[in-house]
Amino acid sequence: MYTGNNILIKNGRLIDPANNVDQICDLFIKDGYVSEIGQLDNDCDHVIDATGKIISPGLIDVHVHFREPGDEEEETIASGSMAAVAGGFTSVVCMPNTKPAVDDATSIEFVHRMARQARKTFVYVMGAITQGRKGTDLAEMGLMQKAGAVGFTDDGAGIQDASIMTRALKYASMLDTVVSQHCQDLSLGSSGVMNSGYNSTVLGLPGMDPLAEEMMLWRDIQLVKRIGVRYHAQHISTAGSVKIIREAKQQGVPVTCEVSPHHLLLTDDCIYEYDTNYKVNPPLRTKADIAALREAIKEGVIDCLATDHAPHLKSEKELEFLAAPFGIASLECALSLYVKALIEPGIIDWPQLLALMTHKPASIIRIEKGTLAKGSIGDVTIIDPDAEYTINAEKFYSKSRNCPYHNWNVRAKVERTIVAGEVRYSAD
Ligand SMILES: NC(=O)N[C@@H](CC(=O)O)C(=O)O
Ligand SMILES: [Zn+2]
Ligand SMILES: [Zn+2]
């Protein structure tokens, strides 16, 4: 008989990067919180044998798109939450580019309410920087923060106007919050659909200049230096961006950044058949960019990994390349993709990977999560690092199927996802 909320996880490789822990042991979760770690013999009805498995703090993704309100046929907060736990994520941060945009306190509360009802993963929200994400008038950032917004972004677009960005950064500084930017200067071209270069020329498709990303990133860093505010660069994709961030960090600028799985694994060579599942913003770049991003991860220049899970309808992705929407759905296979990109080639090891997916993203949005220290919330992901499987997008809990990794053979399977001491996902 099941008599309570307690779970005993036995004999796993417990990796808690925040506390430099990497050892075979047991973990006891009591009433939703981490209660004991060690060789345990607690009396418990719910025992999970984790022999050969990794016990990790619940994974955290600071960049996902759930499409509610507005495009519920693509993803709802409930379907996205289920996809999250299936991917091992116990906390995600929703972007505000819904319809309407999340640009006021009521909308923030709406997302929280739907997430509570879904009762899968913890869902945090970033509010829009500008009203309706139009880039012209600041939204009520203070009120949204009071309602629980963990940061601000107009993701899908960057703030083009430097004076608006200055005002946003000053407000954010006052509120001690983080501004998250999608770096893309549209004055260098707003009609591009893929990386500009040899492939875009051959395919006859309008290109997106790497400089459009780097120019906005560089501009923002100058503003951040002057104002003094936490700034996060979303989904950076070019070798040039790595260089800008590395230099800014050397100068002590409070900048952080994330990288998405597709920018570590795919290049614009993939677009030769005009498959729109490879259409994403920022676009897939080149082998040299992948090498620079991987090297930056090894060096510690990248602060976290984030999926930028961007679900879209099949009917929209079936449009011609020029007209199809940008985005890749990857929440449910992200961990395996990072393993392929970073662990298999020997760039980083498991503790380093998990740091980039747990306490490091937690510190960017300042939530007290991402560790298994005694007293922490019972958010745990159990991973079989050796399990091999084939990604099957048709079986995703996500409502969308726009996944270029369908049929890929990968490693590392999420076995169980425990959120606040409750098993919310189980692979079998
Ligand atoms: N990344 C994408 O290609 N698309 C995102 C928007 C974004 O993250 O910029 C989306 O909302 O679909
Ligand atoms: Zn973006
Ligand atoms: Zn995004």
TrEMBL record:
Which cofactors does the annotated protein need, by name? Zn(2+)
Q: Which Gene3D superfamilies match?
A: Metal-dependent hydrolases (3.20.20.140), Urease, subunit C, domain 1 (2.30.40.10)
Residues at which Zn(2+) 2 binds:
D155, H182, H235
List the catalytic activities from the record.
Answer: (S)-dihydroorotate + H2O = N-carbamoyl-L-aspartate + H(+)
UniProt entry keywords in alphabetical sequence: Hydrolase, Metal-binding, Pyrimidine biosynthesis, Zinc
- What EC number is given for this enzyme? 3.5.2.3
| Binding residue positions for Zn(2+) 1 | H63, H65, D155, D308
Q: Where does this protein act, in terms of pathway?
A: Pyrimidine metabolism; UMP biosynthesis via de novo pathway; (S)-dihydroorotate from bicarbonate: step 3/3
Protein's UniProt name: Dihydroorotase
The encoding gene? pyrC
